[in-house]
């Protein structure tokens, strides 16, 4: 039983194994555990997109999913997260997928449970399956990470994905730059990359990775604020024209159309936004297989050879 | 992939094919898609009855159902319906069943998606699977539609089912009359049938189709209002005695007992109310099969011959 | 089709058959109905723990589960429980598991439905599967009930489990004593056992069965109230040291740590709290099999012989 809590805790070897396996699933491989296996998805913060993606991945692996209604749960009566998961463990749940509003909610759980924990997002902390699906998408496109320039644009400070992606891409040898409003940048990010002005970042990067503006967090923004953001920091139709040949657009979705990205670019040729979602299922299959499988060898039969360039 | 949006858009040939196939399912036939197939039920308006019926139909066809929680969805964060369904499409969902409070919500989606859309009710607009299950129930009873007299009684103006049923029954050669409070009738209905006084309508029809009084819409009605409605426009024990030999009672449910229909008549011999629900599963199986199957041929093996009289 | 409504209505022979069959499941036996079988879990009061346990049990039996969202249901529009279940019956649901806030909600349903009803808790009334899993846990430990002393401690008056357990344990020949705040005891309990002072009850019983303090019901209790309760009526570290050799601790969970029981005792060697949860799945499998199977014979193949001492 292996947890997946953060990408930072994964060695590059583990990162590569997961995305390699995900690619194998993307090409149609199947795998099912030998015994009837139970999982539960505990989404203490709502997220249809991520939850639905896990639900598809779980069903593709033939897992049994125990519906867990957070609003009806004893957690509301003050039960600890440990007791909740220990209960699920007792009734036979082999792995839990958790999204929680608290940063590092899992630190109190480590070492105490046999059930595998897969982190589907913690506070402003981590969102490892999102990072891994981003990596898979980049790998599919370029075949390697080394030497690529990746611009991460938007509310970097509050983004789970920005930090994880910046760290792992930096470790994989990519050049990472950050852009967007300077007040959303912070010094701690300098370990992974430097701040760059928006037009330059867009014009010179292989991957333009936009982050969602969380209007939930920035309530002042009305329609005016949205238009102003789009003009100053969004991927406008004009800016897209300056992008390098072969470069791609990514966004974790849901997209605010005409804020982070112009409406007509969401499904343009450069866009990998829906491809990312597609890849999310395969990454989650790989992560679930890793969590449920003793050992962790790739035992899927597949004829194809997929060369991974590191 | 074929959508099912309205009965109006179905040719009579298509209507007949669906109810014929539904009857085949009612007699125990089975069908499963060749590949693992995913559906999602998006009920933006609650409806346990219709949703549960689809859920049974989907499981009888061996489909994988991705739970979609409207209250947790990005739709609440302003995501368009298109983006929501496009996301589900990306993660592998082959068909979506949608109930939505907006009339013709599907008009913005047509032609843009590969995923099949099955309309499970839109605003005051349409509810095609309800119409089709009503037709199946009538077909089972009488073997034909031509020449039957069908009375549709109640809040016709706000009923999704009344208009669809009136249109398709009229096209199939039945005589349709409307009854109930005259202020709930309107001129546009004259295309399909005329208004008739309640006692005559009940005494002369082969099918007495009652509509649910939506107390949600008519808030003035207290207990007095309910009793008054029952006396004036409900199927009372006395009125039932005037019904023609062989005539039947229908209601889309949930029933307001002692309002549209006397409590003791809900499961009387003439009543097909629970039969309608039973048929709902078979109609939805037929509609899902049609949506998921390339082409649309009936390839179910069945020994029985079911003569359909048109 | 057999209902399970209360333990009081079960003969001792039936109780023994259910826990024997549950033990067979605990040892790895499997059983599946011959035909595709549908169940629905209607939890009008939330309870993740019990619901999840039923969900696992149902999936282990290969049943198809129709999700039923109480908040979206027509029950809220005034539909009777009978009409709701009759609807589910019409669409093909073979058994329903119900939790409801009303005592004896099932009395209006008996004899009217073909669908099996399994009571998962009614008001302050009954919770038969909890009782049965408690019995299974005691049986596994001691091999018999006759002559055991069982102390039930806490809010006995409002506990569904206390009454059912006291009655059935008394019938099975155990000595039952009640303890905790005297104002939570009442005369009607004297049929099954007498009140005993807390220290004596804990020191002399084979089974110390703690009940959950329902802070929902006793709102006055702040942190002070909790500490005071723990000192006066809780299983403190000191009291545990006075327990008999071989005696065990039980609690229906969720536990209020440091209220009914000291935090460090929750998973101590004497504790069967998580074992109870584990057993819950097997008891529910047995109860569902009993509900779905014509007749009720044990037809599971198993090599092992499990001697049940009565």
UniProtKB/TrEMBL annotation, chains A, B, C:
Pathway where it operates: Pyrimidine metabolism; UMP biosynthesis via de novo pathway; (S)-dihydroorotate from bicarbonate: step 2/3
A Pfam family assignment: OTCace_N
Binding site for carbamoyl phosphate: 49-50, 99, 127, 130, 253-254
One GO CC term, this protein: cytosol
Listed EC numbers: 2.1.3.2
Class of the enzyme per the UniProt entry, highest EC level: transferase
InterPro entries cross-referenced by the UniProt entry: Asp/Orn_carbamoyltranf_P-bd (IPR006132), Asp/Orn_carbamoylTrfase (IPR006130), Asp/Orn_carbamoylTrfase_sf (IPR036901), Asp_carbamoyltransf (IPR002082), Asp_carbamoyltransf_Asp/Orn-bd (IPR006131)
Domain Aspartate/ornithine carbamoyltransferase Asp/Orn-binding, residue spans: 147-289
Alphabetically ordered keywords of this record: Pyrimidine biosynthesis, Transferase
A GO biological process held by the record: amino acid metabolic process
GO terms assigned for molecular function: amino acid binding; aspartate carbamoyltransferase activity
All residue ranges annotated as the Aspartate/ornithine carbamoyltransferase carbamoyl-P binding domain in the record: 2-140
Catalytic activity: carbamoyl phosphate + L-aspartate = N-carbamoyl-L-aspartate + phosphate + H(+)
Residue numbers binding L-aspartate: 77, 160, 212
Function description: Catalyzes the condensation of carbamoyl phosphate and aspartate to form carbamoyl aspartate and inorganic phosphate, the committed step in the de novo pyrimidine nucleotide biosynthesis pathway.
PANTHER family reported in the protein's UniProt record: ASPARTATE CARBAMOYLTRANSFERASE, ORNITHINE CARBAMOYLTRANSFERASE, MITOCHONDRIAL
Family stated for the protein in its record: Belongs to the aspartate/ornithine carbamoyltransferase superfamily. ATCase family.
NCBIfam families: asp_carb_tr, PRK00856.1
Quaternary data: Heterododecamer (2C3:3R2) of six catalytic PyrB chains organized as two trimers (C3), and six regulatory PyrI chains organized as three dimers (R2).
Protein name (database record): Aspartate carbamoyltransferase
Originating species: Bacillus yapensis
UniProt gene name: pyrB
């Amino acid at each position: 039983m292996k947890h997946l809590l953060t990408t930072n805790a994964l060695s590059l070897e583990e990162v590569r194994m997961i995305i390699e396996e995900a690619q194998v699933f993307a090409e149609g491989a199947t795998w099912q555990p030998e015994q009837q296996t139970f999982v539960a998805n505990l989404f203490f913060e709502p997220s249809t997109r991520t939850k639905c993606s896990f639900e598809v991945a779980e069903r593709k692996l033939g897992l049994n999913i125990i519906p867990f209604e957070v609003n009806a749960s004893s957690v509301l009566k003050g039960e600890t997260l440990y007791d909740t998961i220990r209960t699920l463990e007792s009734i036979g749940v082999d792995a839990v997928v958790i999204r929680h509003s608290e940063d590092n909610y899992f630190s109190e759980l480590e070492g105490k449970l046999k059930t595998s924990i897969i982190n589907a997002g913690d506070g402003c902390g981590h969102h490892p399956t999102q990072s891994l699906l981003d990596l898979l998408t980049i790998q599919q496109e370029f075949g390697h990470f080394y030497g690529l320039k990746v611009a991460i644009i938007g509310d970097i400070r509050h983004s789970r994905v920005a930090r994880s992606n910046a760290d792992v891409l930096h470790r994989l040898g990519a050049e990472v730059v950050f852009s967007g409003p300077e007040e959303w940048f912070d010094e701690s990010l300098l370990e992974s990359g430097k701040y760059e002005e928006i037009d330059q970042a867009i014009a010179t990067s292989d991957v333009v990775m936009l982050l969602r503006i969380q209007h939930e967090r920035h309530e002042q923004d009305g329609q005016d604020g949205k238009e102003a953001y789009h003009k100053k920091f969004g991927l406008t139709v004009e800016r897209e024209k300056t992008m390098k040949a072969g470069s791609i657009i990514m966004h974790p979705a849901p997209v605010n159309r005409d804020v982070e990205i112009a409406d007509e670019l969401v499904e343009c040729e450069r866009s990998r936004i829906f491809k990312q979602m597609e890849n999310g299922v395969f990454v989650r299959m790989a992560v679930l297989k890793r969590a449920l499988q003793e050992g962790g060898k790739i035992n899927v039969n597949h004829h194809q050879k997929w060369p991974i360039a590191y």
